[in-house]
Structure to design on (909 residues):
């Protein structure tokens, strides 16, 4: 069997960069969660800085995949893999953006007593981070199984989001003067819910990459 | 291998012209070949290549692409003076190899061709045994080392050893087209050239043989500088580090392959590589 | 067929079959001509001979035993009685008669004592189909004569030197002369021809002068051979006599020390075949793909190294074939050799390039021009011998060529 060295090298490069990007997104999300829990404004700033690096990584991945498509004429699984790389990188980039949104919430809830809803956000972020890691692993190991497992975690996030929404609505009814905070909570929870959706989409792309069939995960 | 082969090649006869070593060791020029204002015209007045200037990077694969008749093969043949075989061809400009113009009257084309090898469009092994195909050129150029060893290492470099090691005494004509072409590569490598010129080396081969030869190039560039002419633009994309695009004898664009194939600077390059030529 | 297919198909097929028949006829006609030629030669090479004797064979019978039944000592005794003492001594001195074969002794008796003479010969077909007529003729015209069925093509034809008698005459001298001349021609023309072809094809620039030279080589190939004979006479026989007679090597063959030697003949024939060999070799070299030359040159070989190692071996089989064709032509040449001065009657074998010579075609020509009918039979047999020689030569070349290309295909 003939090895296509250059294509293999491009794939290895892509895997490395995507894994790095996922790690950074995961780290940002966990940092944002920690910042929110500990009211650490410095940590929140770090999250914003990391976002720039993640954006740069996304461009690198896109260039890499574009060059591979332009010069190596990939077909079949090779092509699906490069197309998936584009999409998964974009999803990671969005995930990182949502981490930034979570970090921004830190200031809003500064000096607040502990709230049940904040705990929910924290749990959602933690699951989101696991999803990011799982998605990256599914990609680099070309595993539809891992992708399905990662996507399955979205159910938890969706459930938390629903519960949090109900709580916040109750809070708004009881204490209308806290409406601003309530809105912030809802929006942040929405971001995290979308983060889960992005990772689910990424996992669907990974399943297509591996198996060549379009699937709807968590439908 | 390089140390051993250096010992077995008679330096005094074959190398000194191209080894300007005032400091003692072999000084590497920044580029393997430095082409300056090269113009080649045929006997009928047709200009094959016009005012071509480009520096070919050491230890990399450079592809020369362009439509039929653009002068890419003409240019390649000028790099080891094979164009002189066509009567009436005139060449002006310089091709600097280790700082010395290969067209300098003091330089013999035979010496140039030993240091700058060539592989042709159609596999052209000699009608001799596989072994003799490789040994002949080496013996001719004064190889005094172990011939069996040279044959083996050359065939290994060309990824052909495993397929032919049991039939070295058989005729090269018994090999398949792809194997013949790899034998031609091995034959050229046996002279340990610095540069390997390849003139559409896979255009007469089936896709599988083509893939094998392409896979070979990546490994070879560690030791050699490879310049490949191809009418197959996709091949240029697959195998090369640098790409030069020629059009009717003019160099239109010379850039890293990844750049030329994704963001070409010239409109004509864009049209050609995207298949909208003309 | 509803206009879907071409409706004139039947007409086209008929036309094609008419051509087919015409081609077949042409082939059959040439086969017929060839068969007629072979038949007429073979027909004359065998047949009845009517022998007459001055001395009746019955008169020398010893104790009722005829010559044909005698053993060797009896034959020697017959010779001792029949010949003069001097003649007997001379023969004995040349080779002791007692040690000669009975067959040879009988031949001497037939020619020297019985004075055997062929009176008339018949062809093979006459001998087979008109046998009774032949015997009737003998009974009517030569009641004393003996009818023998004779194969004119026999071992004696090859081993005997030329002789005045058709019954004893052989073509040994001519065969040796032909072989020697051809061999020498080959040795001269082949290297020169191939070298010239290599120069013209591989080295010569494509300019007016070289084109002129090429054109003239083509023209020379078409010049009538007699012209070469005249050239040979003027240059080799006359101008270069000291060389061609062997005088400067002190190797001249006695009274024959003129330029009319095997060397002159070979040089003349070499000139004759040179253009053909050159043209053939040029074609052979041209047929070698240019990629082979490029392969050699790209490996840092010089032009000559490439030609010697690859181009010449690759064209060797074609060059060889062309050379054999040319040599076959030279083997059959008569006219230039007559002009150069081939001997018409030569009883001594040629021993060196400076010997006088004759060749098979000349021998045949000379025999056919004799008035006696039996020499026509002899000529026919000689033609068969010449054909056999030609075929041997061609076969050798084909075998050589096949071995060449087989070796090339197999490597080494």
């Amino acid at each position: 069997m003939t090895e296509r060295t250059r294509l293999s090298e491009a794939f290895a490069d892509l895997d490395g960069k995507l894994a790095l990007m996922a790690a950074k997104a995961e780290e940002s999300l966990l940092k944002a969660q920690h910042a929110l829990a500990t009211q650490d404004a410095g940590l929140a700033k770090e999250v914003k800085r990391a976002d720039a690096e993640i954006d740069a990584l996304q461009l690198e991945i896109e260039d890499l995949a574009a060059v591979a498509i332009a010069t190596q004429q990939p077909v079949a699984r090779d092509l699906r893999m490069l197309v998936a790389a584009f999409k998964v990188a974009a999803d990671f980039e969005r995930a990182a953006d949502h981490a930034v949104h979570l970090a921004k919430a830190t200031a809003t809830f500064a000096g607040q007593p502990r709230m049940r809803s904040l705990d929910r956000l924290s749990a959602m972020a933690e699951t989101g981070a696991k999803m990011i890691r799982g998605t990256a692993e599914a990609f680099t190991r070309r595993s539809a199984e891992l992708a399905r497992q990662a996507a399955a975690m979205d159910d938890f996030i969706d459930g938390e989001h629903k519960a949090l929404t109900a709580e916040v609505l109750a809070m708004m009814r009881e204490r209308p003067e806290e409406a601003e905070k309530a809105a912030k909570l809802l929006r942040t929870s929405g971001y995290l819910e979308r983060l889960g959706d992005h990772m689910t989409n990424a996992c669907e792309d990974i399943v297509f990459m591996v198996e060549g069939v379009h699937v709807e995960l968590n439908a | 291998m390089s140390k051993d082969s250096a010992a077995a090649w008679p330096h005094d006869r074959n190398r000194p012209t191209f080894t300007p070593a005032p400091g003692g060791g072999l000084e590497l020029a920044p580029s393997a070949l430095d082409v300056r204002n090269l113009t080649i015209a045929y006997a009928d007045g047709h200009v094959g290549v016009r005012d071509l200037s480009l520096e070919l990077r050491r230890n990399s694969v450079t592809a020369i692409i362009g439509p039929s008749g653009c002068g890419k093969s003409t240019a390649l043949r000028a790099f080891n003076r094979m164009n002189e075989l066509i009567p009436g061809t005139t060449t002006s400009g310089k091709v600097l190899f280790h700082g010395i113009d290969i067209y300098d009257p003091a330089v013999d084309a035979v010496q140039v061709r030993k240091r700058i090898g060539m592989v042709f469009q159609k596999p052209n092994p000699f009608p001799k045994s596989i072994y003799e195909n490789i040994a002949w050129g080496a013996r001719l150029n004064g190889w005094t080392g172990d011939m069996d060893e040279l044959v083996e290492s050359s065939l290994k470099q060309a990824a052909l050893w495993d397929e032919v090691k049991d039939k070295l005494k058989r005729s090269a004509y018994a090999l398949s087209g792809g194997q013949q072409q790899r034998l031609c590569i091995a034959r050229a490598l046996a002279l340990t050239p610095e540069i390997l010129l390849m003139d559409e080396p896979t255009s007469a081969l089936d896709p599988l043989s083509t893939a094998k030869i392409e896979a070979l190039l990546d490994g070879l560039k560690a030791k050699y500088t490879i310049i490949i002419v191809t009418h197959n633009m996709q091949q240029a994309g697959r195998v090369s580090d640098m790409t030069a695009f020629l059009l009717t004898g003019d160099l239109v664009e010379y850039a890293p392959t990844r750049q030329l194939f994704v963001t070409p600077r010239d409109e004509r390059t864009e049209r050609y590589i995207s298949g909208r030529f003309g | 067929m509803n206009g879907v297919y071409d409706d004139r198909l039947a007409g086209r097929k008929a036309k094609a079959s008419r051509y087919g028949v015409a081609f077949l006829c042409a082939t059959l006609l040439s086969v017929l001509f060839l068969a007629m030629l072979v038949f007429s030669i073979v027909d004359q090479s065998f047949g009845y001979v009517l022998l007459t004797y001055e001395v009746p064979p019955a008169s020398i019978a010893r104790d009722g035993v005829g010559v044909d039944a005698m053993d060797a000592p009896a034959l020697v005794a017959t010779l001792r009685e029949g010949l003069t003492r001097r003649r007997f001594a001379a023969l004995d001195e040349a080779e002791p008669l007692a040690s000669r074969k009975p067959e040879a002794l009988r031949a001497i008796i037939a020619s020297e004592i019985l004075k055997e003479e062929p009176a008339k010969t018949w062809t093979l077909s006459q001998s087979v189909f008109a046998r009774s007529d032949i015997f009737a003729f003998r009974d009517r015209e030569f009641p004393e004569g003996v009818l023998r069925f004779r194969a004119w093509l026999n071992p004696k034809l090859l081993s005997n030197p030329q002789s005045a008698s058709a019954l004893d005459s052989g073509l040994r001298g001519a065969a040796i002369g032909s072989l020697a001349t051809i061999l020498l021609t080959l040795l001269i023309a082949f290297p020169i021809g191939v070298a010239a072809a290599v120069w013209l094809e591989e080295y010569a620039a494509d300019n007016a002068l070289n084109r002129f030279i090429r054109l003239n080589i083509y023209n020379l190939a078409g010049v009538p051979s007699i012209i070469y004979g005249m050239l040979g006479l003027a240059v080799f026989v006359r101008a270069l006599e000291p060389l061609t007679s062997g005088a400067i090597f002190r190797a001249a063959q006695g009274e024959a020390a003129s330029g009319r030697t095997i060397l002159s003949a070979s040089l003349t024939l070499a000139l004759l075949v040179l253009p053909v060999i050159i043209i053939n070799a040029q074609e052979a070299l041209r047929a070698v793909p240019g990629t082979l030359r490029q392969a050699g040159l790209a490996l840092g070989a010089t032009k000559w190294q490439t030609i010697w190692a690859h181009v010449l071996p690759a064209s060797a089989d074609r060059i060889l074939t062309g050379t054999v064709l040319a040599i076959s032509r030279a083997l059959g040449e008569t006219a230039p050799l007559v002009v150069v001065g081939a001997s018409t009657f030569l009883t001594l074998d040629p021993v060196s390039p400076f010997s006088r010579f004759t060749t098979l075609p000349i021998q045949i020509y000379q025999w056919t021009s004799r008035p006696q009918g039996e020499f026509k039979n002899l000529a026919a047999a000689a033609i068969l011998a010449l054909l056999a020689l030609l075929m041997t030569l061609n076969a050798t070349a084909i075998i050589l060529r096949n071995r060449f290309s087989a070796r090339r295909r197999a490597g080494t």
Notes: Chain A touches chain B through twelve residues (CB under 8 Å). The CA atoms of residues 15 and 140 of chain A lie 5 Å apart. Chain A has a mean pLDDT of 92. The helical segments of chain A are 5-38, 41-72, 76-108, 116-140, 144-152, 154-174, 179-211.
